[in-house]
Specification:
five-stranded antiparallel beta sheet, Thiol Ester Dehydrase, Chain A, 140 residues, single chain, 5 strands
């Protein structure tokens, strides 16, 4: 069984629209923060990956399904895991939930690129550190 990364978020006033509901674009910020914390959990950061390997991780695509609203001062949990991988990209699933139900489901296609914007092989240290968080087989 695979592991999951968990990251908690509290909804602040600035995150909501005039109706007190989380503005839809803020969920993208929440999942980005969770991915950054997932990297930290395996002992890396975006800065270190760029500095050590000359690589950036970019979002190629994001499929997001808004299921229920979230409100001011809700406590949200973001569960993240790697669904699949190729030699230069990962598909990460991210679920945002409150204590009662799933609020958002998201699939993010992340690509590793060099300074010229060309896809590059994912460094072994990153793949090895992420392996416990894969839910499907790795296709590299």
């Amino acid at each position: 069984m695979h592991k999951n990364f968990y990251h908690k978020i509290k909804v602040y006033y600035e995150d909501t629209d005039a109706g007190g509901i989380v503005y839809y674009a803020n969920y993208l910020k929440y999942i980005e923060r969770a991915r950054t914390e997932a990297l930290a959990n395996i002992g890396l950061s975006n800065y270190q990956i760029k500095d050590k390997f000359g690589i950036n991780i970019i979002v190629k695509s994001c499929n997001i399904d808004y299921k229920k609203p979230s409100y001011l001062e809700n406590e949200l949990t973001i569960k993240s895991f790697i669904k699949s991988a190729t030699k230069s990209s990962l598909i990460m699933s991210q679920l945002i939930s409150n204590e009662e139900f799933i609020v958002v489901e998201c699939q993010v296609h992340l690509v590793f690129i060099n300074e010229k914007g060309k896809p590059v092989r994912i460094p072994e240290i990153i793949l090895n550190n992420f392996k416990p968080y894969f839910c499907d087989s790795i296709k590299i």
